[in-house]
Amino acid sequence: MRQSQTLIPTLKETPADAEIKSHQLLVRAGYIRQTASGVYSFLPMGNKVLNNVKKIVSEEMEKAGAVEMLMPALQLSELWKETGRWYSMGPELMRLHDRHEREFALGATHEEVVTSLIRDEIKSYKKLPLSVYQIQTKFRDEKRPRFGLLRGREFIMKDAYTFHTDQDSLDEAYQKMYQAYQNIFTRCGLNFRAVIADSGAMGGKDTHEFMVLSEIGEDTIAYSDTSDFAANIEMAEVNVTYEQSDEAAKGLETVETPGYKTMNEVSQFLGLPLEKGIKSLLFKVDERYVLVLSRGDHEINDIKLKNALGAINVELASEKETKQLLNTEVGSIGPVRVPEDIEIVADHAIAAIRNGYCGATENDKHYQNVNPDRDFKVSSYQDLRFIQEGDPSPDGQGKIKFAKGIEVGHIFKLGQFYAEKLGAQYLNEQGKQETMTMGCYGIGVSRTLAAIVEQYHDENGIKWPKEITPYHVHVIAVNPKNQEQLDLAEDIYEQLQQNNISVLFDDRKERPGVKFADSDLIGLPVRITVGKKAADGYVECKLRENGEQEDLHISELIDKIN
Ligand code: ATP
Ligand code: MG
Ligand code: MG
Ligand code: MG
Questions:
Q1: For the Aminoacyl-transfer RNA synthetases class-II family profile domain, which residue ranges apply (predicted)?
Q2: Which of 37, 93, 157 has the most ligand 1 atoms within 8 A of CB, as the residue to mutate?
């Protein structure tokens, strides 16, 4: 590519709003431009590097047995209502109306769409397992879009989904995906680590995040200094062993809480951070159970909860239903009004909810029925959000250290959450209807690109790793007005292309200083400078990686670069 014919608008000055290196450099080197907060155009060079990341991702997905497809960004609200995420995703989900006032979401992720699609297309166990993926634009109205491509409101994601008849088949696919992710981030040249993660509002358990280690990472990883234990400290719980004696069931109001079993999931649903000292109250209203979280003391007498943080209908876990039951604003900070005929089932129900049951534990009116030690025993509970550096590692080996990470990938065993909600069933070998088991696997493709720049740059610009670089060689004609130099540079440009070496040719009529500065900024691995020694057939070859340079005769050039 001739530089005079492409669009690489480099900037001398650092854009005022760009706080981190990848954002500064991708803008300054002419790879991307912002069009709105968290929304970017990929210019020709940016598009090339993005395609290179996509190519690696695609190749490894195909190797792992996934087939590529493409689903729409525009998604009917009905699907999102069926899973409850229309309510639980809150303002992050971009919503719009069509001319007939039908509600839509712009896809933040595609579990709803893909599950309903597979539900309609696959009816028999013979067609399972199935693994599909897409590389597609996602929309999330992030509270704080920032750091350029790292946290956009419109961004590129690879999302894969697998469908199975049973857990073993899912486990196998998960392992394959885990390996594919290792391959992808290794090929991207990244220093990364897989960590155990929190399943959040996605439902299901068993999940890993792939973290690029970086000071500017927004996630904190707690890892052991001697074993391979590593986890996102967002994790509320690791290593929980819960024992419920047979006695516990007796005299206890217990109710299963499908979908939102852990306290962390409850807090995710409500969009509330869990803190030490949060209290909870469990009500029974119309045969439904509602959990209210509050920071202060409950004021039960006038049936008003001051300082309530939010509430969840633990059976249905839908914001709308909870609102109806409580006749109040839910999920927001403020007083919560509860109906007058409520029955208070349990105060301080946290430990119980955490383990998948709502039940009386302490301070509640059924307390004399109940013995917390006997009935609810959490033998090793670890809340990582309160863990400190130097604490013993939850796996019992070594001490905890902290590192910052950028989440570039996330894999989940979803189980049957979406398949159940959306009725994705198949006929098994005996001709019986069964619910599918699912996994989902995301990679922030545009975020990965930015993470690469975070790890590959110096004070002068980007230093692309070889699988990502937009072109391998940068040929610079120092003085294109000198015919000898121009001819030689043209000749080298031709030869490299004939040898399938990708090349950017700086044929612009700019001062040498400008060309060299741009070249460092743009960051191609090899620079060939055609200058004064051109008359003798010599050029200068310089590696961006380490600055090593040598004079080479054109006859040895191709061999050297290959
Ligand atoms: P984060 O914790 O950073 O908000 P997430 O956990 O919400 O990310 P997932 O739902 O797991 O994201 O989506 C899969 C992948 O998509 C993430 O691992 C990340 O690499 C990428 N991603 C998520 N949000 C953004 C965003 N706003 N901009 C760019 N990439 C994103
Ligand atoms: Mg997010
Ligand atoms: Mg996350
Ligand atoms: Mg995630």
A1: 33-465
A2: 157
